[in-house]
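Morning F.,

Quick status update on the modeling queue. The single chain you submitted on Monday has been processed. Sequence for confirmation:
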Amino acid sequence: MYYRLKDDYLLRGWDKLPYAIVDRKKGGAAFITSKQMQALELCDGEVDVSDIFIPDALKEIIAEAEQKGSIEPCERGEGLKEFQKYKRYSNRFIRSAHWSITGKCNYKCKHCYMSAPNANAYEAPHEDIMKIIDMLAECGVMSVSLTGGEALTRKDFWEIVDALLEHGIVITQIYSNGALVNENVLKELDKRKIHPSFVMSFDGVDGWHDWLRGVTGAQKLVDRAFELCRDMGFDASASMTIHQGNKDTLRATINHLASLGVQGIKTGYVSNLGEWKAYSDKSVGIKDIFQAYLDYLPHYYEDGMPINVMFTSFIELRKDKPDKYRIIGYDEEYNPAKTLLCPPSRSSANISPDGRVLMCGMMIGMQIEKLFPTMPQTHFRDCIDFPEHLRLCDMRADDLLKANEKCRTCKFNKHCYGGCRGAALTEDESNVMAPLKSLCEMYYGGWIKKIVETIQKARPTAECPVKDLSLLQ
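Structure tokens below.
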């Protein structure tokens, strides 16, 4: 009996993670043992796996792989394609990259931290972009999400897409303001047999989206983009920036997005960076943002849990899990020495428009980004091993406690481990270890108790995620 890996699967390895089976369609890797790798390497269409000389332990692994769907029976000689055979990369494992392929934009957003398009926003030349794609492939990066500026403004956008696909790199998401997401764009993606999800900005009904984006008619364009995604089979979600003007539109905004087929929304608040410095009078304090979120919670259940919701530094709600919710920034108890401050940074990279590989995309435009080398002058494998990059990616909750007496002596520090370091830098650019003000407010302002009480009343069947009763008294 002969087996082969299905076409969507590859055998790969990286430094310190030598054995993996990669699903190139999903852009994911499952790390396996050397014995599992030995068994899968027999599934090459050339070896009779029923041979009496093949150990039973390997045969059991092969049977399990067939059950899981990564291999299939075949005729002898139906061997693996060359790209499926085992290959080991010399660099550490990076699964994905979030890539700002341009700093340029077609909008005039009042909160733009890059100050695009008013500033001389950087856009790497085509040849540099192609070199970067080669580098990502040479390091075994499996997937990318594309953003900007506005990614779709690049004249060579489709050349970038095709180059990524030729290297087997999956495009998982495209971030956009929606103005250029039209039927032709979606048809071109469909023609290439890819369906990345779209994350599009939407900053409130009642004219607030147009106001923040600085372009009349912006809401009509993004509404149409959401509708097209729904009608043509592309998942879409929204991101919303909260300020004084739109904080009371949450219910109407979320219901409007649900009517357009949007799957979810993630909110954030405006940082006093870039263009927003001229509009700082429209900033809203953390207490007011949290109150707006809290006021909305009963409506979420009244309206039938219309979409998934993530209110940054507050709560996550999922319509497919009506009796579950997550309070962001709360952990029942954690190990400070082992808890990473930014777990995603260990297996993903953020690439700025000028080719700097950063721990966090929020670092783009900040002082700290200048500490890092740029591609393609420096190879991607050297960027991810750059000492400052490694240091930031390996920061632990222990480091935060050592750096901050306030955190070290805080009575809530067994539950709160500091929060997003990128968000902390927006509050204090000089201190990556700065305490996150929103989390301090969450605990000392009693918001955990308020959230639990509000949801208990609105959705009595919902399971309370807080086990520490002292937070609820």
